[in-house]
Hints:
With 410 residues, the protein is mainly alpha-helical. The protein contains 16 helices and no strands. The two termini are 44 Å apart.
Amino acid sequence: KLEKQERTTLKLQKQLRAYAKQIQELTAHPLGVAGAASCLAQDQLSIAAWIPTVLLSPADYKPQSCLGELPELPAYILFLCFRHADHCCDEPRARSLLDAAIDAIKRVMKKHSDDFNTVALWLANTCRLLNCLRQYSQDEGNTARQNEHRLQNVDPQSSCRSLGALAVQLYQQLIRTAEKCLKPMIVAAMLESEPIQGLSSSCPPGHRRSSTAPAHTLPELLQQLGSFRAALDHHGLAPSVRHQALRQLLFLVTGTTLNYLLLRKDTCCWSRGIQLRYNISQLEQWLRAEGLHQSGAWEVLEPLVQAAQLLQVKKVTEEDAGALCSLCTALSPQQVVKILRAYTPAAGLEERISPSFISSRQLQDQYGGGSSQLLVDTSHLFPVHLPFSASPLHLDELCIPDGLDLAFLV
């Protein structure tokens, strides 16, 4: 009985010390700090768990469901809690909050890995939280009012590294998710659809398309790209990150189309080159209409443009060989030779490419050595750059809607 009473006494003393510490925190550091949010110690993990599982549930969270609600609101709420921990000089609380949030984000991403909107939403919020930590740890670029909310006691560098790594991981997952949607559409839209009617009749025998309609058309492909772009805009992702994502997706379109062209002999003819060049021009027109012509996406289309031109140019004389050498600068030697050997002339309209033309001195000088790459590695990801973007928002003006069920947050 004595041992049982001692254990009970120790347990109650431990609880008493915990409550005394909470009272001390509340009296020593009042909650009324401008530009910060606080909750009791036992609710710290509730914040991290609440944000990705409740607020960011695809069915429950709509960033524009409330007038004036920010798509990056979860990031701002997390930063407000981090700021209050900084004000209280409680570095362990600040770190545990962000660590728990990062773990919760990863769990939600694992569950919704194929949902482009969810991944885009979390990527935008991770970037915003990262930028808030950077912005309020320095004076540059802030207004005088924002400098009043600077972090004073907690060094955010290690948290910035963790969030930066998570943001890169989310960007890569975003690209992979979009690629799953695009891959089944590319070949049918770029090579099998026939936007210019009547050209298939000039195809060589055995190369004419079937009468059945292709599974996907170019307008469908452009609509899918447009929906990706709209989702990135909707969730407030930085323009440079949106441009990098679209550039990566157009690299997939170029690489997949070019690989199919190199592997299928029936695609190497003049009429297919005309259709392909027309489809590329539609992609270029879409980029201009969306204001993306200076995003770097235009450049990744160049190998496909040159392949289409290679199918259309004359390939008979030494002069033709010289013009061809100056034309195909973005294609590897093996790709150029492969297309020339697979090329089938239109019956009665063109001469077959002679072996002497392919082995001509100019072509051998230009394409006799160098890269032996034939197929494009469509799984290649360009390195992503996540730029710093300061928020114009003042933290003490942030409005948290009552409908978010955050009664434990002050």
